[in-house]
Amino acid sequence: MRRLFLTALLLLPTLALADVDARFAQLRDQAEALGSLSSFLDKYIGECAGLFVNPSCKSNAEAFRAKYGGRKLYMIVGEDAATMLTPGPYQPGSGNYTIQVIPYFPGGAYALTQGTPTQTDSAGNPLLPLIRITGTTPEGWAATDFLRLFSSKKIRAQIVFTPQGVWTIPRKQGGKAQGVAARIEAILLTFAPTGDPLGLWFAEQPPAAPKEPASKGGKKGKKK
Fold first, then answer.
1. Closest by Cα among 80, 91, 186 to 133
2. How far is CA 174 from CA 12, 47, 120, 125, in A?
3. Per DSSP, what are the bridge partners of residue 155?
4. pLDDT tens digits, one per residue of 152-183
């Protein structure tokens, strides 16, 4: 029984990587899979505070940042942790919707953000421009079905990003907030129970795969 359980755990990453869009798959396959965001942020920032800090802490952090300079990384934000997703406008007639993404991905004491924040809200959280991802609900859905995706936590996010540096901003109530600025390359949102795509966003829209011309009737002509 234990062996079956361990096998199931090993299969989960494979299931999560199921190809949905060839353009996203290409970006994802070029990136390094991230095991733990909080561990990555700790090593990248290298705050090195406290009495019992390793003397090589700062040099280790510098080496870690240099290692990942310009490299793409890939992470999955599970449905329970995807609190940065909120419902946007929904059109009942067409079923077209918008999902809003606050590009702030917490990991332990720090966070990964789209770019470098320069301001905070009254609670001390960094203010960041929204990313908007659009899609269309299946036939027969209503606004309540769309909103239930968020209230029941059914959306999973897959993200490809490139780290760009460390940011620090003061909090209005005192102290400071720290994180890693990144270029978010692409975001894929899926319906967690089935893996069906809900929306896809690219920082730069990649070219569509070229289509091979077909002869009349939709079939290629055979060479004689």
1. 186
2. 42, 18, 12, 12
3. 191
4. 999 999 999 999 999 999 988 888 899 999 99
